[in-house]
Amino acid sequence: MTNRLEMVLRNDLSELERLAAAVEEFIERNDLPPDLSFKFNLCFDELITNTVSYGYGDAGPHEIRVRMEAGGTELRAEVEDDADAFDPFAEAPPPDLTSDVDDRRVGGLGVFLVQKTMDHASYRREGGRNLILLSKSIG
């Protein structure tokens, strides 16, 4: 059993497919509940899409690192990038959950889903890089 996964992605949305396949393989290889694959891929998709779409002030190449580790009763992940500083959990607008879908303003729902899907989701800025930490109980 290899309880760690580390990938370096280009700042290109096409990389999400490669990441999703690696996460699914990691979950299977470690005999973890299959729903964890869906949950983490949902969160990675949201967070990385936002980073690639809005986080960089240039069109140049950048790397996004994703790490996962299964340990004890918890699956942990980190998403690290060199995009502009942005704490999605403090700065993303709160979603409008009461209006009709057609009347809602865009933004905030994906970050809300990340927070509701994970047991823990946090952000910190370290060494000029964004670091998002996620964890979910394996049980």
From TrEMBL:
Residues 11-136 form the Histidine kinase/HSP90-like ATPase domain. InterPro entries: Anti-sigma-factor_SerPK, HATPase_C_sf, HATPase_dom. One of its GO terms (molecular function) is protein serine/threonine kinase activity. Keywords: ATP-binding, Kinase, Nucleotide-binding, Serine/threonine-protein kinase, Transferase. PANTHER family: ANTI-SIGMA-F FACTOR RSBW-RELATED, SLR1861 PROTEIN. This is ATP-binding protein. It comes from Azospirillum oryzae.
